[in-house]
Amino acid sequence: MSIEIKLSRSTVEKFLTCPRCCVLENKFKIRPPSLPFTLNIAVDNLCKNEFDYYRKLKKPHPLFLENNIDAIPFQHKKLDEWRNNFQGLRYISKEKNYNFGGAIDDVWQKSNGELIVADVKATSKNNFDWAETFNKYEYPKAYKRQLEMYQWLLHKNGFPVAKEAYLVYFNGQKNEDFFNNRLNFEAHLVKINCSSSWVEQKIEQTVNLLKSDIFPQPSTNCEICNYLRKRWKLSQTFK
Ligand code: SF4
User: Is the shortest distance between the CB of 18 and ligand 1 below 6 Å?
Assistant: First the structure.
């Protein structure tokens, strides 16, 4: 029996954007340098605390009322586990021999029982325009895939899941006259209609890659590898 492959939703995301980095990170533990986004983590935590307040009360968050969302924050004994980066909401496939999971930010429950996946994001833009950002850049599409992978996990764990998911987006106001040690945010609820139909196949493809001896080519539009490539070429001319 082969060894169970443990993978996260970011492993699958890496597989989709650059299979080589997926292999480097997961098989060889080689990762590009990165810094922790501590301010974003602070926003995440404060937002979670606020949703937990309404969860205890079993009442809708004011943002739900403003946006006509007929739901309340979902109560479940495993919610803290699902939100934990080192545990997360998981699904184990005995047949395909993998253990897939991801740490969710929040889950809300509609009055019909369906669960809504929500993820918290922070940014600072002069003009917050989700549709424009979604069409222009790749990263919002990854946010959508993130929500869809969480939806798939909830579904595989036996819960009814709503098609729509939400990004709770906090936009930091950077053009105020004074700082006064305070960063003000405007909140946007971005509703995204999702489909998790692609998720299982991509998990399986990621697992198959990680089990194989294949070392894929790097992505051609990645800043890091392009930087390394240019450095390498230049270094060859100075030999
Ligand atoms: S192109 Fe290179 S650095 Fe970029 S994601 Fe792929 S392997 Fe990683």
Answer: yes
Q: With contact defined as beta carbons under 8 Å apart, do 160 and 113 qualify?
A: yes
Angstrom distance (rounded) from CA 40 to CA 85 = 15
Instruction: With a cut of 90, say whether residue 141 has pLDDT above it.
Output: yes
Q: Is 225 in the pocket of ligand 1 (CB under 6 A)?
A: yes
Residue 2: pLDDT band with limits 50, 70, 90: confident
pLDDT tens digits along 4-60: 999 999 999 999 999 999 999 999 999 988 888 899 999 999 999 999 999 999 999
**Total-model pTM:** 0.94
Q: Is the CB of 16 within 6 Å of ligand 1?
A: no
Contact in structure between 5 and 98 (CB atoms under 8 Å): yes
Task: Please indicate whether residue 222, judged by its CB atom, sits closer than 6 Å to ligand 1.
Answer: yes
CA of 32 to the centre of ligand 1 (A): 8
**Ligand 1 centre distance from Cα of residue 38 (Å):** 24
* Nearest-CA residue for atom 8 of ligand 1: 21
* pLDDT band for position 1 (cuts 50, 70, 90): low
Does the beta carbon of 190 lie inside 6 Å of ligand 1? no
